[in-house]
Amino acid sequence: MHLFLWRFLINLWPPFLFAGIRCTHVAKDFRRIDVAMRSYWLNLNIMRTHFGGSLYAMTDPWYMAMLMQIMGRDYYVWDRRAEIDFEAPGRGTVRATFTLNQAQIDAIRAATADGDKHLAEFDVEIFDAQQKRVALVKKTVYVRKKPQHRVAKDSVQ
Known about the structure:
Blueprint (H helix, E strand, L loop, with lengths): L2 H10 L1 H4 L3 E6 L5 E6 L14 H6 L4 H10 L3 E12 L7 E6 L2 H11 L5 E10 L5 E13 L12
Antiparallel strand pairs: 1-2, 2-4, 3-6, 4-5, 5-6
């Protein structure tokens, strides 16, 4: 799918659209994605700061989506676990950047080469407009080759 169309469609996804979450940049190789969330009445809590669930939602699918694109159709890729540490009230537009480097991708490929599952762990920070860290999110993504693409352990000598 063309990158512009992919980003356009993901921004129309109702959980993002109605929470004010926007994917603002996707690298051609899917190794970087930038996301922003502006403040408006649907994503603010009683204290007039970003609702914690909206802060988490802006980080939810990105590493899984990136790895699905990078690893290809030969792999299962699923979100497995997440943890969020709220550090400061989120006000105004908040931003997060998701990155993958070649060493991380190589490590995942090596860990899954013989068909074993791998739980890849990533940290992502959410910052406000003043570059103050609002939250730290720890994501765990399950990656495993699909059965038809696994090399049988017995056949490897």
